[in-house]
Structures are given as structure tokens and as C-alpha cells.
Design goal:
With 302 residues, this protein is an alpha/beta fold. 33% of the residues lie in helices and 25% in strands. The relative contact order is 0.12.
Length: 302
């Protein structure tokens, strides 16, 4: 069975505070506080652990905050491989106003990390892993890292026989996709920005996901927040008699009816492409599979 490694190059201590009637230019009182080890890759490892699986969380960690993150993950039976750097791991503040219904995030920049450090970390990951293992590259890049970092990592890991799962945005996502990871999970806004066109409905998102798969990436899952996700993968199947878009709409509607009746939240509808040139497209439920717990990434479901 393949091992799973998650990579978080810009982790954070997520400090969530509850501040009723939060207001600027005034003294605000915190009524509740929670601290979490954060960062997209770390969140994947946390979900894997909740599901009863195992993974190794590889993360850039610095100072006392980095030590707290490593200790907290260890207490939750998550193995940690630290990439140690000078400075202090960032703290992200999240203000939740339960009265006003607002959420305000204030994120620190985090320590600077050089490409030399990241290149050595990449070599260490390759030395530690075996062909067929899964490496999840997820989250933002730290200060000092080149925009093509995920591209270089994806190429090297893929050449070593590893399956790369990529979850990023902006230039980091584009650079990673150029090197053909096995799986990627942009949201609809990230995919729209990358393709340079608006994706206004599920048809447009499904077509865009199919384009990414046709470009050589095995599996694409485009999350749409509380509206679920569109999933496209190989192999290309035989064509049915109906339009794949019409079929997607029809089966998605059936799926949401099933969910409203409290059927399995992890059910998926399989919508085959309308021609042999189209990848296979699925509509996925939004509760639990893609848009469930905070910080969830489909990279955890392997």
C-alpha cells in the first residue's frame, strides 16, 4: 500500500477568536479562542488521521510556533518531518463575529525560505519515498520561494515515480500544472483566473475540468464551495446517446434529491463524455466529500 506524504511550505498557527459585534477603532473583547496547526497540507494530514489513515506531514517550521505545531501534530498521532528554517512560523488570526455574521482573516507573511533550502528538502523527500507513494503539494508558497517551486517539485517527484496531488492557486498552480501532476483540485475561482475566462455555471466548469484532463493530467476536481464539485478523469469512455451536459444536470439533480433525503453524502454521479474525445466527468456532492470540514482537501481521500 502506498505511503502518503503531505507538504506544507507555508504553515501557520491558526488562532480563531470569537468577538461579538467586532468593530474597528474600538476595544474588542474575545469571548472564545482556539488554536490549530494550520496550512493546507497539514489539514490534509489531519483529515487522513480522522479517517483512520496514516500520513507524514512535511512542513517548513521555525521557532517556538513551529515547535508547537510539530508537538500538536505528534499528539494527534501524525508523523512530522520538519524543514527547519530560522525565524518564526507565522500566526494567522481569524476574527469571528457571531452577532454581525462576519469572518475577518489577518495573515502574517511567515519566515523567508530560500530555493536552496527547498531544493534540499525536495531531495530529502525523494530519498525518503518509494515509487508509487503519494505526495500532496498544498497551500501557498513562503516568502523567498520561486513561483515555479511546485513545478520543479512536481517534475522531480513524478520522475521519481511518485503520484503528485497539487492544490494551489495563481502562478504556483500554473507552474505545477505545466509538469502534469496526477491530481489537482483548484476551486472554480482559481481555475477561472488560470484560464483567463469566467466560469459562470457547472457546464463551463465541467468543460474547463475536461480541458485540464485532456492536457495530460489524470484527475481534476474543481470545488465550488457549498455547491459541491465537478470531477473529471481518464479513461475516455464510449459516447452515450445524450449530451454529456444534459446528463450531468439530470444526474446532479437526482443526487441532490438523494442528499436532501439524507442519503449517503459521499455519493457521486458518473457522467460519461459525449464523444470519445471527452474525459469522463462526474458531479460530486458538496457535503463531506469536497466541501465538508474546514481545511478539507480531496487529496486526503486516496
Amino acid at each position: 500500500m502506498p505511503s502518503i506524504y503531505t507538504v506544507t511550505l507555508n504553515p501557520a498557527l491558526d488562532k480563531t477568536v470569537q468577538v461579538p459585534n467586532f468593530a474597528v477603532d474600538q476595544v474588542n473583547r474575545i469571548t472564545w479562542l482556539r488554536r490549530d496547526a494550520g496550512g493546507k497540507g497539514i489539514n490534509v494530514s489531519k483529515v487522513i488521521a480522522k479517517l483512520g489513515g496514516e500520513s507524514t506531514a512535511i512542513a517548513v517550521l521555525a521557532g517556538q510556533t513551529g515547535k508547537w505545531i510539530a508537538d500538536t501534530l505528534g499528539e494527534n498521532n501524525i508523523k512530522v518531518q520538519a524543514i527547519s528554517v530560522p525565524g518564526e512560523t507565522r500566526t494567522n488570526l481569524k476574527f469571528v463575529d457571531t452577532e454581525g455574521g462576519t469572518n475577518t482573516d489577518i495573515n502574517e507573511p511567515g519566515p523567508e525560505v530560500t530555493d536552496t533550502v527547498l531544493d534540499q528538502a525536495l531531495a530529502d523527500v525523494i530519498a525518503k519515498t518509494s515509487a508509487g507513494d503519494i505526495v500532496v503539494l498544498s497551500g501557498s508558497l513562503p516568502r523567498g520561494a520561486s513561483a515555479d517551486t511546485y513545478g520543479r517539485w512536481t517534475r522531480a517527484l513524478r520522475d521519481a515515480g511518485l503520484k503528485v496531488y497539487l492544490d494551489a492557486d495563481g502562478a504556483a498552480l500554473s507552474a505545477g500544472l505545466e509538469q502534469k501532476p496526477y491530481f489537482t483540485k483548484p476551486n472554480n475561482h482559481e481555475l477561472s483566473a488560470m484560464l483567463g475566462r469566467e466560469l459562470t455555471d457547472v457546464d463551463a466548469i465541467a468543460a474547463a475540468a475536461s480541458e485540464i484532463v485532456a492536457g495530460g493530467i489524470d484527475t481534476v476536481c474543481v470545488s465550488m464551495g457549498g455547491n459541491g464539485a465537478v470531477y473529471a478523469d481518464w479513461p475516455w469512455p464510449r459516447a452515450p446517446q445524450t449530451s454529456w451536459r444534459a446528463e450531468l444536470r439530470r444526474r446532479s439533480a437526482r443526487l441532490w434529491i438523494r442528499l436532501s433525503r439524507k442519503c449517503s453524502s459521499r455519493a457521486c454521479v458518473n457522467v460519461r463524455g459525449a464523444s470519445a474525445r471527452r474525459p469522463r466527468v462526474h458531479g460530486c456532492a458538496g457535503h463531506g466529500l469536497v466541501a465538508g470540514a474546514r481545511g478539507f482537501s480531496p487529496g486526503a481521500l486516496v
